[in-house]
Design brief:
It contains nine helices and no strands. It is mainly α and about 200 residues long.
Length: about 200
C-alpha cells in the first residue's frame, strides 16, 4: 500500500469506529485530549495520528490496532463469525475420521491379518455425530442439530450391525428407524415451542 492509501484507510477507520460507538468528533477529542481539529484532520486523511494515539483509539473503540489500519472492518462481522463457526464445525467433525484413519493404519501395520480394521471408520460416524451435535447445538439451527443427532442414531446402528456379525443384528435398524422418527418429532416440537 502507498502512503495515500494508508492515510485514506486510517482516516475512514477512525471515522467508522467513532460513529460506531456513537461519539462526535469533539467528544472523541475530549476523551483522547486532542483538539477536535486534529480529529477532523485525521478523518479527512490530511494527517495521521502517531502510533500511541492510534493505540489509544483502538483501546477506546474496543478493536485492535490492526483494525484501524486495515479494511477488514468493512466485512460483516456476523458473516465472518458464521464462516468461522462452519469452519470449526467441519474441522471438528473431520477429527474423528482422522483418528479412525490413524488407528486403521496402526492396526494394519501391527496386525496385518486383522479383518475388521475398517470398523474404525464405522465408529467414526457416530463420534462425528456427537461432535457435530455439540457444535450445532451451540451455533446452528434445529435442522443441523437434527441431522447431527440422526448421524449418531444411524452411526450407532451401522456400528452395532457390523460389529456383532450376527444375522439378527440387522434388526438394529428397526430401533434406529424408531429413534429417527422420535428425533424428527422432538425437533419439530422444539421448533414449534420456540415459535410460540
Amino acid at each position: 500500500m502507498d502512503e495515500t492509501t494508508i492515510k485514506k484507510t486510517i482516516a475512514e477507520n477512525i471515522a467508522y469506529y467513532r460513529k460506531k460507538i456513537g461519539l462526535t468528533q469533539s467528544e472523541l477529542s475530549e476523551k483522547i485530549n486532542y483538539s477536535d481539529k486534529s480529529v477532523s484532520k485525521w478523518e479527512r486523511g490530511d494527517g495521521l495520528p502517531d502510533v500511541l494515539v492510534l493505540s489509544e483509539l483502538a483501546e477506546l473503540y474496543g478493536v485492535t490496532l490492526n483494525d484501524l489500519v486495515s479494511t477488514d472492518h468493512k466485512k460483516d462481522p456476523a458473516k465472518r463469525r458464521a464462516r468461522t463457526r462452519v469452519f470449526v464445525t467441519l474441522l471438528s467433525a473431520g477429527l474423528p475420521w482422522l483418528v479412525a484413519a490413524v488407528v486403521y493404519f496402526i492396526v494394519k501395520l501391527a496386525a496385518p491379518g486383522y479383518a475388521y480394521a475398517e470398523h474404525f471408520f464405522l465408529y467414526a460416524i457416530a463420534i462425528c455425530g456427537i461432535v457435530s451435535t455439540v457444535l450445532t447445538t451451540l451455533w446452528f439451527s434445529h435442522v443441523w442439530q437434527m441431522l447431527s443427532v440422526s448421524m449418531i442414531v444411524w452411526g450407532v446402528a451401522v456400528s452395532v450391525h457390523f460389529t456383532c456379525r450376527l444375522p439378527q443384528a440387522i434388526y438394529i435398524y428397526i430401533i434406529a428407524a424408531v429413534m429417527q422418527v422420535l428425533t424428527l418429532f422432538w425437533f419439530t416440537m422444539k421448533k414449534i415451542g420456540k415459535k410460540s
